[in-house]
Amino acid sequence: MPLFAALPPTDLPTVAYVPTALHTAELVTERSAERHTVRSGDTVYGIAARYGVSPTLIVHANNLSEGGRWILPGTTLVVPGADSATSPGTTAKAGTRAKEPAGTRVTVRQGDTLSHLAARHGTTVSALASANGLRDTRLIYPGQVLVLPGSGDGAARGKATPGSSPAARPATGAPAATGGTVTVRSGDTLTGIADRNGISVAALAKTNRLSTADFIHPGQKLRLPGGATPEPRDRAYDPSTVGDYKAGEKVEDTFLHYRYSDGVARSAAANRDYLAAVDVPSREAMKQLIVETSKRHGVDHTLMLALSYQESGWNMRAVSPANAIGAMQVIPTSGDWASALVGRQLNLLDPADNVEAGVVIMRALLHAADKDDHAIGGYYQGLASVREHGLFADTKQYVRNIRHLMGTL
Question: Which residues pair with 183 in a beta bridge?
Fold first, then answer.
């Protein structure tokens, strides 16, 4: 039964690869080269970010085939142009970048995420977000200036660069008009949730008609008092993490005449409710993100724009009853496959990660399929199914729609 979402083919390897069109190669002059031993999960892109060099330089210096798609743990790579003063060495653990001095400012580039910047500068996402007053860690934009943690300098917090797109700006930290919701995780307490969301335990308990001494349990959904916003999630809900959210309630479970399991349908409802309660980029901002991410990974951006429009209308809040999430309509298992391809955990609720998942899945499908139409159909039907059964009638229409949109959008 098709899931009508981005599906991984069962016979493609889940080995990390590096995009071949990430950044224009920099010219390197008199800087020393470093050596890096590949660890499980490493990608050329991640290694390059860690040392502050271009992925293209690493590919050429090591004569890597297929743009560095296949790198094996234990392999030693030469990293040309790495600055010995800041690259891993005697002053930092092998494979990690030494921290920049407190007060250093960095400018966000196209394709950057907070996780990329944190890895590049030897810090954490939470510390970087805190140092810059970011309430929503997903929304940063090219040209934005961020302060590295430890400076105590809040002058650049939330600072916008003239000419930047308002749709791509991060949340300002102003209270929401109404409260959102949060799902209890293992180990959570009312006190901990209240602390994380900047509210009092009494207010949280009152909003949910609880006593401050009541027990709460993983998967339970709590409403936040007016003025609070849901805490960011590190990954999307799936049947293994949704708990008893909406258990026993009627939730939408049918799509295109197919009915999905209770766990899948409730996970979709949880993801839908989460995205409804947080800020997401506008459709125009999502289009720009799709173009930038596609170019970074060497995939035809007109194809990805057409595919996302067909799937969701560039709507990051879209979640189908099959639990296909966001603008690229990727299901969690496919998100895990995409995570293996890029060498880091992708969060399908994060707009940048959602787009990246869709793009790298399509890139893998294009490499594996005999025909581009089979790759496009594989995004909808699953490539293994396409190989076994050919394109279903509705898949053929899906491919025709994508081809038409590529010429009109």
Answer: 221
How far, in Å, CA of 341 to CA of 181, rounded? 32
Quick: pLDDT tens for 56-106: 778 888 888 766 666 777 888 888 876 543 344 333 333 334 445 555 788
Dump strand ranges (E) for 296-395.
none
The residue whose two tokens read 């293996």 is 340
pTM for the structure as a whole: 0.56
- Closest among 42, 49, 177 to 116, alpha carbons compared: 49
- Side chain identity, residue 6: A
Cβ atoms of 355 and 280 closer than 8 Å:
no
Which residue among 66, 311, 356, 388 is the active-site one? 311
Q: How far is CA 329 from CA 2, 191, 233, 307, 324, in A?
A: 14, 35, 18, 10, 4
User: Residue holding tokens 């944190």?
Assistant: 118
Query: pLDDT digit string (tens) for 306-365?
Result: 999 999 999 999 999 999 999 999 999 999 999 988 888 899 999 999 999 999 999 999
Buried b (16+ CB within 10 A) or exposed e, 283-296: bebbbbbbbbbbbb
CA distance 131 to 120: 16
252 is catalytic: no
Length of the chain: 409
- Nearest 5°: phi and psi at 93? -65, 145
CATH architecture designation of domain 34-168: Roll (3.10)
Contacts of 111 (CB under 8 A, 6+ apart): 22, 292, 293, 296
Angle at 300 between CA 298 and CA 306, to 5 degrees: 140
Cα–Cα distance measured from residue 264 to residue 193, given in angstroms and rounded to the nearest whole number: 26
Distance from C-alpha of 373 to C-alpha of 405, rounded to nearest angstrom: 14
In terms of Cα–Cα distance, which of 85, 105, 93 is closest to 37? 93
User: What are the structural domain ranges in the chain?
Assistant: 34-168
- DSSP, collapsed to helix, strand or coil, labels residue 73 as coil
* Amino acid in position 57: L
